[in-house]
Structure formats: C-alpha cells, structure tokens
Design brief:
Shape of chain B: globular
Mean pLDDT of chain B: 87
Low-confidence stretches of chain A: none
Number of domains of chain B: 2
CATH topology of the largest domain in chain B: ABC transporter involved in vitamin B12 uptake, BtuC
Shape of chain A: globular
Distance between the termini of chain B: 49 Å
CATH superfamily of the largest domain in chain B: ABC transporter involved in vitamin B12 uptake, BtuC
CATH topology of chain A: Rossmann fold
Bound molecules: adenosine-5'-diphosphate, magnesium ion
CATH superfamily of chain A: P-loop containing nucleotide triphosphate hydrolases
Radius of gyration of chain A: 19 Å
Oligomer: heterodimer
Number of domains of chain A: 1
Helix content of chain A: 25-40%
Distance between the termini of chain A: 40 Å
Order of helices and strands of chain A: EEEHEEHEHHHEHEHEEHH
Number of strands of chain A: 10
Largest sheet of chain A: 6 strands, mixed
Mean pLDDT of chain A: 93
Largest interface: A-B, 44 and 34 residues
Strand order of the largest sheet of chain A: 6-7-8-3-9-10
Number of helices of chain B: 16
Number of helices of chain A: 9
C-alpha cells in the first residue's frame, strides 16, 4: 500500500547547519499494516511522515501509494490518499468554523469542491452519528466553534476527520503527546478502534515505547535518519520496554563501532 | 445626512469585499484603492459609449476581478509579500485607470445611468432611496454569506483560519487566495461603478485611501455587532459602512474640510485597532468569558492582526489558547 524507496533528505545542504535527516530509508507497508514508529529526538520520524504526506520532498528516492508514484505530488494533491493527525491539537481543525463545518470540509477530501451547500440536513445527521462514536457528546454541539473545544476533544475530532473519508494511508505524528494522560488514553483507544474498524494502513509515531509495543502489528525504530530495527507482530510480542532500550544501545554501539572501523 | 447614509450603503459593497480578504482570508489587501477606480473608470467609459449602465456595472465587476487575480498571482506564485503585492497592483492600476479614462475625470452628466430612474423619481435622499440602496447592500451581503457556506466557501474560510489543516484535506490554498482576492476586488470594482453613477463622474483620485474606509467599516461594524456567525459579521459590515459615513459627515458639519477626511479615516482605524487592546477592554472581554459567554473569546477583534503586522498570528493563537483552558471545564 505504501512504499518508500531509498529516500534521503538533507536540510541546509552544504552549509554549516547541514542536517542529514534521512539516509536512504526503505519501508514497505502492506494493506492494513499498523506500524508504530519510535526513536530518539531528531531521528527523522517526522521527516518520514512529512515526505509521505508531501509536506517535504525527498532529495533522493520515491514514495508510492497504492501502486501510484506520488513523489512529485504536492501535499494537497496527495490528500485524497492521506489522512493526518498532527501533534499540535490546534493544527488539525479550523477553530473559527463550527464542528459541522469542519466535518463538511473533511467529508470532501479528495473530491471537487463546488457551490453545493457545505452542511445539509442529511450530512448533519450523518456527522452526528460519526461524532457519537467518540462518546464525547460532540454530536450535540454541531454548531459550536471548534476553537471552544479542549485539546483532547479537538484531537479526537481531528482523528475522526482524518479517518472518516477512508484514506489509503493514515499518518499520526505523536498525536497524543500534547494531551494529559487521561485524554491521551482516550485518543489512543479511539485510534485503535478506528484503525481496526476500517483496516487503515497506518504509520504512528509515538514517544511512548510501551504504547508502541502494545499497539499495532509492527514496530520500527529509527536513529540518525535510518531504520535500525523492524519488528513483526510475533517479534514484538513478549518484548518489554527494557528489551527495546537494550536493543537500541546494542545497535547504536554497533554503528559507532562501524564508524570507528571505517576511519 | 440621508446622503451620508446612501453613500454608506453603496460603499458597503466595497466594505464587503474588504471583509472577504481582511477577515475571511486574513489578507490585508491594498489593491482596493486601485480596483475601485478601475471599476468606476470602466463603468464611466462604457456608459459614455452608450453601453447599458447595468451592463457597465457587471463589466466593472469583471475588471475588479482581474485586478484581484493579479494581486493573488503576485502573492502566491510570485511569492511576494501580501501587502506589497497589493501595493504593486494598486500603483500599476493608476496608469491603467488613466489609460481607460483617457483623462483624469470623466463626467457622466446628461448620461443615463442606473441611478437616473431614482433621481428622476425624486426619491434620492429620502426613505425610498435609502430602501433601494439597503436592498442592494443586503442582497450582496446575503450572496456573500451564501457563498461562504458552500463547499468552496468553507474551504476559503479554512484557508484564512488554518492553512495547514485545509491543505491536508486536499485544498490548493493558492487557488483559494486568488479566488478570494478576485471576488473581493470584483465587489470593490462594482462599488466604484455605482459610486461613479451616483456622484455623476469618475475621477482618477477617487480610490485614494479607500482601504481605510473599508477597514474602518469592517472593524467598527464588528466591534459593535460581533461576528458570531458569518451572517451577523456581513450585516455588521454594512452597518459599519453607514456609521463610518455618518461619522465623516458629522466631522464635516463641525467644520472640518473634505481634505481633512483622510486624517479622520486614519484616526478612526487607529482607534478601532488600538482601543480593543487597552486593559479596560481586555478585562471586560475576559469577564464576559468567565460568565459563560464562550463566543466572546472568538470575537477578539482580529484587529491585532494588522496592529502587530503579522496577520493571523497574534489574535488567532491568543484565542486558541484561551479557549483550550475554557472548553475543558
Ligand atoms: N523543516 C526543517 N528544517 C530544518 N531542519 C529540519 C526540518 N525538519 C527536521 N529537521 C531536522 O531533521 C532532523 C530530523 O528531524 P525530525 O524528523 O523532526 O525528527 P523526529 O521527528 O524523529 O524527532 C533533525 O535534526 C531536525 O533538526
Ligand atoms: Mg517529530
């Protein structure tokens, strides 16, 4: 469903600030894969997601979604295939528009927008049904401006908006990191539920190793712009956070050794 | 005074255009000063050449539309700062407007204009005249409100509200900005055409400083009536435009001369931008929020957007943070 081949990305190339964010990343997701992504700060996790969404273009390599090479498509041109939830709960919704207007915008993802009324009575009842699945009572506040919702409510709404028009790929970038633990749990639960129900092919970056082990059917670990560990569902099972940390130290050590050998 | 009200109602067409760019797209567009005169010039020349005056208004709309597209292209494709893009178009239009008119002033005396029937019926400056212009302004406001609630209109609103979000739902925000600037300046051009017919001439200097009248109308109207919904906000702009003309009229009556009016406009806009930031008003707004009128938070006059010189950041993030705390209760 998603193939990333030999993707490299360097920021500020050729200057003193040069940052090699990705070094030849290869990744393939089969349809319905739910992959959690972990790694230290600056490992390149967000850059991978931004390259899939079209926010960033790779220096080298290609991105293929559902057999279609989208490497050169801009972010809004890929939006028909890609649903996203950002880390910042404010980023995924329009605060001055109402809940139903935000839903209507999400409802047109990947379809032409013309002069038909955005929110009709039939759409409104469909939106209410969708919102009811969040169990936050938002279905009774369709005409409330989204800016009035709490961070957790906005993130739950963003998740619904990103998923209810069935994207081919769902990208989640630490989308629970800005929430308090209780609301983070809620959004995580909603995420598992919707990904499972719809069988969405998903890449989820998380800072929480425990969650990364618990959620999804595959786990990858990134470090310095490379994927250094790729665990299948079976390999994941039975491992603990401690195992992951050990694995990380081992691989990091190895790469450092490699470098010293090469010098 | 009735003349001031009539003028306010006609200028409301322009103010609605300014509302579309300044509030909806969060784009302070200075094209207005040029495109207004372009509309007036196109209409005046068309009418003196025997074209139907209603047709002349539509042609002025199209001329304004084109001016808006140019500013939009400069900003999105040319990556020129929005304020500068507007100024460039505005200044370029000065020469074009002179070309269209052939001279600095085109009189319409003795020509049949769209206003002639009203004038001949003797209703100008009376209740019927005011009713006619109210109808025009309100119908256009309602058309704008309708548009903003279509799929395209919602995408345009979101473009000014959260660009990253609307792109992630597949909208080309460049196109939305170009379309919004086009429609806005179309309205402005149309307004120029009606004003030229109302006052009986088009003049090369008639648009100078007009953006201030537009901004003042938007800010004054919404400071009084708020912008809880698009409908309220758009009708507030119409009322704001009338109030603005009344204030100008009053300043004339207390003895200021017409050349002082630019300064009066500038001071009005400065007051409208600065006063809501004063501690007294801030405190009042916060109290309203605590009392459970949540919408007040979002009503924070977008004025600081211009005041801080960083459109869309100041007021917008401010509102967002306050509301988070608030919504959790
Ligand atoms: N837009 C950008 N401009 C410059 N450098 C960037 C940009 N985005 C990411 N980087 C750099 O690329 C590296 C990888 O960043 P990122 O993908 O955000 O890491 P992660 O999400 O794993 O924490 C970091 O060194 C970061 O500073
Ligand atoms: Mg990141």
């Amino acid at each position: 469903m998603l193939t990333i081949s030999s993707v490299s990305k360097t920021f500020f190339a050729g200057t003193v600030n040069e940052r090699r964010a990705l070094r030849g990343v290869d990744l393939h997701l089969a349809e319905g894969d739910f992959v959690t992504v972990i790694g230290s700060n600056g490992a390149g996790k967000s850059t991978v997601l931004n390259i899939v969404s079209g926010d960033l273009f790779p220096d080298e390599g290609t991105v293929t979604i559902d057999g279609r090479d989208v490497t050169k498509l801009q972010d809004h041109q890929r939006a028909a295939f890609v649903g996203r939830v950002f880390q910042d709960p404010m980023a995924g919704t329009a605060p001055h528009l109402t809940i139903e207007e935000n839903m209507a915008i999400a409802d047109r993802r990947g379809r032409p927008r013309r002069l038909a009324t955005g929110v009709t009575r039939s759409k409104r009842s469909r939106f209410a049904d969708e919102l009811a699945t969040l169990e936050l009572g938002l279905e009774n506040r369709l005409k409330a401006k989204v800016g009035l919702l709490s961070g957790g409510q906005r993130q739950a709404l963003s998740l619904l908006m990103a998923t209810f028009s069935d994207p081919k790929i769902l990208l989640l970038d630490e989308h629970t990191a800005a929430l308090d633990p209780q609301r983070a749990d809620l959004v995580t639960r909603l995420t598992r539920q919707v990904v499972e129900d719809k069988g969405l092919t998903t890449l989820m970056v998380t800072h929480n190793m425990e969650q990364a082990l618990r959620v999804g059917n595959r786990l990858i670990m990134m470090h310095e712009g490379q994927i250094i560990l790729d665990l299948t569902e079976e390999e994941k099972r039975g491992r603990t956070v401690k195992d992951l940390l050990g694995e990380f130290e081992k691989i990091k050590g190895a790469t450092i050794d490699d470098k010293t050998l090469l010098q | 005074m009735t003349t001031a009200i009539e003028l306010g109602l006609i200028y409301a067409i322009m103010a609605l255009g300014v509302y579309l760019t300044f509030r909806i797209l969060d784009f302070p567009d200075l094209t207005v000063d040029g495109s207004f005169t372009t509309g007036a010039a196109v209409a005046a020349i068309s009418i003196t050449n025997g074209i139907n005056p209603i047709m002349a208004i539509l042609m002025a709309f199209v001329a304004g539309l084109i001016a808006g597209v140019i500013t939009g292209l400069l900003n999105t494709k040319g990556r020129i700062n929005g304020l500068l893009a507007g100024i460039l178009t505005q200044i370029g239009l000065y020469s074009i407007n002179l070309r269209i008119m052939g001279k600095a002033n085109v009189p319409l005396l003795g020509e049949d204009t769209a206003i002639t029937p009203l004038r001949e019926a003797g209703v100008l400056g009376g209740p019927v005249g005011i009713a006619a212009f109210t109808l025009l302004a309100v119908v256009l406001a309602l058309v704008l409100v309708w548009f903003l609630h279509t799929d395209t209109g919602l995408a345009m609103q979101a473009t000014g509200d959260n660009e990253k979000m609307i792109r992630s739902f597949g909208v080309n925000t460049d196109n939305q900005k170009i379309l919004g600037l086009a429609l806005s300046n179309g309205l402005v051009g149309m307004c120029g055409a009606v004003i030229a017919q109302y006052q009986g001439f088009a003049d090369i200097g008639m648009g100078i400083g007009l953006i201030l009248a537009g901004l003042a109308s938007v800010i004054i109207g919404q400071a009084i009536f708020g912008q809880r919904t698009i409908l309220i906000a758009a009708l507030a702009v119409v009322v704001g435009s009338v109030l603005y003309r009344v204030v100008i009229q009053l300043s004339l009556e207390v003895g200021l001369n017409p050349n002082d009016m630019k300064l009066v406009s500038a001071i009005l806009v400065i007051l409208a931008l600065v006063v809501p930031q004063l501690p007294f008003f801030k405190r009042r707004r916060r109290t309203r929020v605590r009392k459970g009128e949540p919408d007040a938070v979002l009503e924070t006059p977008g004025a600081p957007a211009l005041a801080t010189g960083a459109p869309g950041t100041g007021s917008f993030t401010g509102a967002a943070t306050t509301t988070t705390e608030q919504g959790d209760r």
